[in-house]
Amino acid sequence: xxxxxxxxxxxxxxxxxxxxxxxxxxxxxxxxxxxxxxxxxxxxxxxxxxxxxxxxxxxxxxxxxxxxxxxxxxxxxxxxxxxxxxxxxxxxxxxxxxxxxxxxxxxxxxxxxxxxxxxxxxxxxxxxxxxxxxxxxxxxxxxxxxxxxxxxxxxxxxxxxxxxxxxxxxxxxxxxxxxxxxxxxxxxxxxxxxxxxxxxxxxxxxxxxxxxxxxxxxxxxxxxxxxxxxxxxxxxxxxxxxxxxxxxxxxxxxxxxxxxxxxxxxxxxxxxxxxxxxxxxxxxxxxxxxxxxxxxxxxxxxxxxxxxxxxxxxxxxxxxxxxxxxxxxxxxxxxxxxxxxxxxxxxxxxxxxxxxxxxxxxxxxxxxxxxxxxxxxxxxxxxxxxxxxxxxxxxxxxxxxxxxxxxxxxxxxxxxxxxxxxxxxxxxxxxxxxxxxxxxxxxxxxxxxxxxxxxxxxxxxxxxxxxxxxxxxxxxxxxxxxxxxxxxxxxxxxxxxxxxxxxxxxxxxxxxxxxxxxxxxxxxxxxxxxxxxxxxxxxxxxxxxxxxxxxxxxxxxxxxxxxxxxxxxxxxxxxxxxxxxxxxxxxxxxxxxxxxxxxxxxxxxxxxxxxxxxxxxxxxxxxxxxxxxxxxxxxxxxxxxxxxxxxxxxxxxxxxxxxxxxxxxxxxxxxxxxxxxxxxxxxxxxxxxxxxxxxxxxxxxxxxxxxxxxxxxxxxxxxxxxxxxxxxxxxxxxxxxxxxxxxxxxxxxxxxxxxxxxxxxxxxxxxxxxxxxxxxxxxxxxxxxxxxxxxxxxxxxxxxxxxxxxxxxxxxxxxxxxxxxxxxxxxxxxxxxxxxxxxxxxxxxxxxxxxxxxxxxxxxxxxxxxxxxxxxxxxxxxxxxxxxxxxxxxxxxxxxxxxxxxxxxxxxxxxxxxxxxxxxxxxxxxxxxxxxxxxxxxxxxxxxxxxxxxxxxxxxxxxxxxxxxxxxxxxxxxxxxxxxxxxxxxxxxxxxxxxxxxxxxxxxxxxxxxxxxxxxxxxxxxxxxxxxxxxxxxxxxxxxxxxxxxxxxxxxx
Length: 1053
Description:
The chain is of the alpha+beta class. It contains 33 helices and 39 strands. The strands form 13 sheets. Strands 5-6-4-3-18-17 form a six-stranded mixed β-sheet, with no helix packed on it. Strand 30 and strand 31 (771-778) form a beta hairpin. The radius of gyration is 35 Å and the shape is globular.
């Protein structure tokens, strides 16, 4: 093309068409008739071989053609084969994410690297997520730096952690079928980082020990242009030697030569009116595998996007997937009920086989559903946001044209026009987005489901879902076949419990039938105390109507919506199936098949150990389980069988109460000058390793009848599962042990299994499902150490006898010693061991989501709460323009206040005044946000009343009083109620005999912060009318009004 252009310029000079000085074309305005005349004259005079040169010139003069144009920014990769890797220094990702989504949606990019993302932890993944892509981040702060990477979800990849923390990078191995793995990395070098090349050189060998292909994209801030000349010779792997090189560039050159790397971008990546630079690079040791590379004009940043395309061995890499689902286009609930009535369900209680009855019922139900909502196959498509319309697209096209013109001319006026277009696009996006979400949010007031769905589209923090393509490595072989991977997971989950059993030491046999008999003897239970009762269809109807529609269907693909819509018809046959089930002591086999979906946790994505299964059961199965659960729970509650300090999965119990009791006990120890030693125990796969024989044997001692135990045996044994991966399902797998995860009965059965655990120890045991801790108090650390060692050893023996495994690795099981500051300093370390395994002592631990430090200062928990609240406030401010005052208040109540309320009685009273002030400052920020006040506005009583909030200290006091209220009304655990003693009012017997509580004596400041001391003090301050409230909601409402009135009186005085 350069030769053709030279010939064209010579031709034009000979015809005196325009002046060329210093090899630069001066743009001239040519009269139309002169232009036409010149074309005619030229075509007749020049030879045919020079016509191509002439037309090259005409294209350049047209004003919209570049000498080296590169691909268009829209749809630039759609018809190109291969894997496309791209990178852009975006100079702050968040404000440009909508425009970036538009670009990605119209292109087929495999990996997109972002540098200078300028993100921090206050920005959630949901705000910058791109549909169809997995997001990886390496943040610095909001002021500079940071790296992000978007990887297409149909690609399998494995994250590589090679570089030290001071290098901003993301590296992944891309795994493809029939292709060696290759590495793609995103790098950013700040201009001031002078050791970057040295560190990069030291780590390149570790990136690919097997010498696989490497592709590194990023902004390295190493300019390879000098006076318009590329320092890299584009025709070889060498460098132009005629230019004086900087020391940094020399290091960079040596790196490329040493590792046979080539920098393949040859055009400027950052263009201003007075400079050209090439600082965004693509480095690779496999340039022969690159089919194309270059720069792309997208106009999002002051940097150009760079790209390269790697050849694929496979001619086509399918990125689409089909999904089978039900069509609700013609669905009508009334018609569905009419069809169900025509089914004429028989009386299933007369059947002699539960499987036959259940199969008949499901068959009729499925046929009815197929008539109103048939299945169909769809291919999900990436759609633009509703507000991103044609007007925005046209503005982006205009901006792109002006950018190209500025790149060609580099005139200040063209740069100004381009910047005007950038501003226009940004303002247009903000306006359209604001108008759309304002309207949608107003429309959905009073529709909670639609409202929260709209807020999630704004980037509201939500649980991540695993939608990535899964490939697994077993026995040094990587599998890409979905069916094969599903079976790998099936084998892994099936063998998980068996492998843990094999690692267990020999049983101590101390905790068997005899110990169970002694433990449950105190309950005076007969063997046939508990049997199931038949249920009416009214009971079943009530359960059906309380179903959550969001629950995912099981293997039968019958969703809760159909069950709920047909409740009036379905309640009777379901009640008959349940009654038949308890009559025959048999559970339907089809209800014992669960669908497992692997959910990635952390670590290597190709290792099945790093996935945990999510179990999905049929909705009908959950209804049957709910009926059994309610009857079983009533029996256990009536006979007070469950361990008093078991706080998991029980009505009126919670983590808040468990933590409140624990902190009260520790702080009372501070008051009496004693130490508190504590061991936190972590079990491996506790729910999945329950031994069925042991569980059924324990039911005998709890008083279950033989028929009831036979039903539970049918429920537990011969359970199967299938694994669902990438739209493929595994062969059925067997579950030899464990309680069904995702079930209604599973948690209750687990509580029964561990209910006799307290018999193994003399120390105090606190349980929340499988989260357990033992604590012992004494003034002598040696006594504590001896007792904890003895109890921990016995507890480990109990676990072994009950086929449960303790997790000793990764600091999962740990210890801590609580005491005052001066006692902690002089205290010796706790030495807790079990069969030569040492339990590490920590200065702070996390138990049930609350951070506890050894001096019970509450500082770590307070800082954690402040950070979380700060992130949420920043999110709300970023979206303030979309929210009405009412929505602001709703979001603050839903997203922010729970962080302060959680277990506040366990950490707030121990804070320094400085930390309490910081918590109050965070609340003041929320109030200013809700009331649209400036940052320096004073927050007082008027502002609190407008938002109907209490200040943080009064909110803490409200929580204390609520604990007392629930305690006195029997709505909390017995271990909380025992903390408070009612003052007897002489010989008078009144209806409200709990109007005053006795306050125990505490001699130290820490003792006076304990729950058992502060709660009576706050309760006794309340007026009698408040104490006489009948419901907790009324009490909390009246208490809030009382505190605000008191504050008003205080301010007047």
